[in-house]
Amino acid sequence: MTDIDEMNVQVRDILEKMRIQESTIYARALIEDDLVGLWRKMLIEWMYYVVDYCRLQRSAVAAASYFFDVAVRRELVHGPEEHQLAAATALQLALKTHDSSVIRLDKLVKLGRGQFTEKDVVRMERKILETVDWHLHPPSAYCFLQQYKRLLPNTIGTTTRQMISNVTSLASEVTLTDHNYLAYHPSEVSYASILMALEMIPHDDLPIIQRQCFLLRMSTAAQMDCKSGAVLEAFERLKVSMESSPKFTTLTETLQKQQKQNARDCRKYYRRRGSYTSAVHDRSPRHVMVRLMSG
Asked: In the CATH hierarchy, which fold is given to the domain comprising 141-294?
């Protein structure tokens, strides 16, 4: 068995367990109340602000959103003040289990601007722990993305991988803050995020053969079909969500800069070898995903 085959088997086994968990132990439910959905959006955006300011793991926000959603679904909170308490507690709990650093409790209370006390956080944490029955590792979209990226071809360069990470990072944030994406499994949302990256990255930076290789590995190792109704629905919804995001313009500008850097690096490499031509990369349609998924 080759190293690639062994890696594919390992990823397949991990993903199989995670997909079972997302449908059973960590199954999520839609939030029917739009007002609660709005509170949720603002509070998760606040979580991202806190972890970015404190230089903590953004992936912890995904776990925190799960704990928060459980508190809402099980009616542990009522009103905006208690929702804020649940959000702060959920973030603290997620950092304890998904990061090597946490926010000191007194600082967390200060961030709450007098809406809750340290004792309130401790009590809410106990309620959440009892409600989730100490299941503290939900398989989030970040977890699935980590495994999916292992299936990317080794021939993809560093700059292109960074381009994929930039797109999926914004996609993860957009989908996590919008309660409508609770209608999909995290495995489906994360695949839609990867497909969005394949859609946005030009063919010069990600040739069609590399895209096809990845889709094949996703089908065999991850057991995920890019033509799945849920994946395609999430993908189309994600297009609209990302284009509506205030950060979308910054993302496109970053991708353009990285594309230029990729082109410069490519020219330098082939000039050193004395064999550079303008047709180094395989050509593919601009919106290659449309073609690949309809084939």
From this structure: Cyclin A; domain 1 (1.10.472)
CA angle (266, 267, 273) in 5-degree steps = 95
Report the C-alpha gap between 130 and 139 in whole angstroms.
19
Show pLDDT as tens, one digit a residue, over the chain (295 residues).
Answer: 677 778 889 999 999 999 999 999 999 999 989 999 999 999 999 999 999 988 999 999 999 999 999 999 999 999 889 999 999 999 999 999 988 788 888 888 888 877 899 999 999 999 999 999 999 999 999 999 999 999 999 999 999 999 999 999 999 999 999 999 999 999 999 999 999 999 999 998 999 999 999 999 999 999 999 999 999 999 999 999 999 999 999 999 999 999 988 888 776 655 665 554 444 334 333 344 444 444 4
Q: How is the chain split into domains, by residue range?
A: 27-131, 141-294
The whole-angstrom separation of Cα 165 and Cα 197 is: 8
- pTM as predicted: 0.86
- Topology of domain 27-131 in CATH is Cyclin A; domain 1 (1.10.472)
Nearest to 139 by CA among 190, 186, 107, 79: 186
Q: Which token pair is 249?
A: 């313009």
